[in-house]
Amino acid sequence: MEQLVQGVCLVCSKATKQKCSKCGEPFCSTKCQKALWPTHKWLCDKPKYIFTLAPLSQLELKQAKAVVSSMEDKMIEAMKNVDIAESDGWREGNYENLINDLADPACELSEPSRSAMIHEMHQLIRVGWLAKVVPDDSEKPISPWNDLCVTWGLFKHPVPEEGQASADAATGWESLGPSHFTLYNAFHRRMLVFWTLKHLQRQGKALPPTVELHQLNQLSEVRTMAACQAAANRKLAAQVVLNSAMMGFIDDITGGRNPDAATKLGLNPDGSLKKEDDDGAKEKNGAGANDSTA
User: To 5 degrees, how large is the angle CA 113–CA 116–CA 122?
Assistant: First the structure.
């Protein structure tokens, strides 16, 4: 590591004059730098003005193909829910080729569309895993990148309160499309630090002695507010606050096929997507069993 005038360690927020010799990001010690390396190695030589997602791993590649090849009703509905659109580059019958591209570090797709498609694929993988469409492989199909994408998805489309028409309407949220990779660049990077360290903790590996995740959580809250306000979106700043309850909820989803977490995501406790049968839908709408109108 090299020296700089003064900075704040990306991992533990300790004041430091040391930095990564390649990208110049501040790290107070080799331990902190090593702790973040699993995800930092992708961002290290990338432009700092935009956040980009790492390619799909080989496990994620297999899971993504399992999701799109199933093409079951529940996965088609899930694809609609995560806003996968033709304008993002998805073409019917071309999913497998595109997924191969998203797993290729040398992918020639331009940013931010490339990262937007990877983001959508991560959400599909999580829904497919919860719905048991993708194989478990005795290994949870979760990575810091996947956690990050699910976290952003939950902040972007929070669960509505009772009696509330939609959470989007309440927060004044407007779809940013791929532009959120630049507008909320700092937010994504800070969230990725949290999830990278959280994964080390789950694996039973020692965190740097200066790191405590609950403190990192609090630091994230402050920095997220600043990042959102800098992006001139105070309504979203009020919504996208990293608090212990939200992080715990996302951790529940990450830890396994948690029934409560599944319910929050609109799934049945066993992980399958909720789907009313025709008779149930008619009864709910007050239509008789013999009605012929849809």
Answer: 145
